[in-house]
Amino acid sequence: MEWLIQMKNALDYMELKMTETLRIEEVAEVAFVSPFHFQRMFSMLTGFTVADYIRKRRLTLAAQELAVSKVRVLDVALKYGYDSPESFAKAFRKAHGITPSAARKSGVQLKAFPRISFHLSLKGDQDMDYKIVDKPAFTVIGKSMEVTTRDGENFRRIPQFWDECNEDGTSDKLIELASSREWLGICMCMDMEKEMLTYWIGVEGTPETDAQGYETAIVPAASWAVFRSEGALPHAIQGVWQRIYQEWFPGTGYEHTGGPEIELYPPGDTSAEDYVCEVWIPVMKK
What we know:
Helix content: 25-40%
Shape: elongated
CATH superfamily of the largest domain: Regulatory factor, effector binding domain
Keywords: DNA-binding, Transcription, Transcription regulation
CATH topology of the largest domain: Multidrug-efflux Transporter 1 Regulator Bmrr, Chain A
Pfam families: Cass2, HTH_18
Protein name: Effector binding domain-containing protein
Structural class: alpha+beta
Organism: Paenibacillus rhizoplanae
Strand content: 15-25%
Order of helices and strands: HHHHHHEEHHEEEEHEEE
InterPro entries: AraC_E-bd, Cass2, Homeodomain-like_sf, HTH_AraC, HTH_AraC-typ_CS, MarA-like, Reg_factor_effector_dom_sf, Tscrpt_reg_AraC-type_HTH
């Protein structure tokens, strides 16, 4: 119940500050969590980044103001955080399909992005097993790409990236370099404010492993909450991700550290109902 109140308070604070400079550190402080944890929780629970939510709400409020008042477009643009009428008009047209000036016309249709609210959902019908694993830093060998989290682009692009790596033989070549027979999907370098992350398809190696031209990186030492997923992909593991953020984090005294998130995939038929893989989240006690 406490987390629900904290998230509601954070939403109230954002709504009050829509016409002011909004710093994520201040919003997270209202929710009594770290900025990264708040942004990650918000994104996983709502499907929007904090920045995307604020942008959509501001453009909704701006459209309402233009429709009922004679205030100048420039003044509305500045009020809702845009540096120029041009940047405001571009964002406004993308959101509403018309120019800011056209929003003043009688009978014109505008799109409204309503304020989000959170509601308590009592489930408890299924236990959520997990374990805490302390793992030292390790080397990952693989292939990476940068992708935006804006408008859910990461959810579309990452599956395509897996298809590309499977089709061009990258996945098979990587597993030959692995110190264990498991593929890793890693969300690394997550910058929630810039709405960007670096996604890796790779394997765990050692500092002595010949990367054979592939990229290498170090995943730092951490305490990991490890969750088991059983069932066909991607549905089964998507359900695990939802439960981690909807049930596990709110119901425990843990918080995301801001480090990489990992999906661990052993060999096997990923379409089988008994396929088992894991989700690894770096955590710390609040």
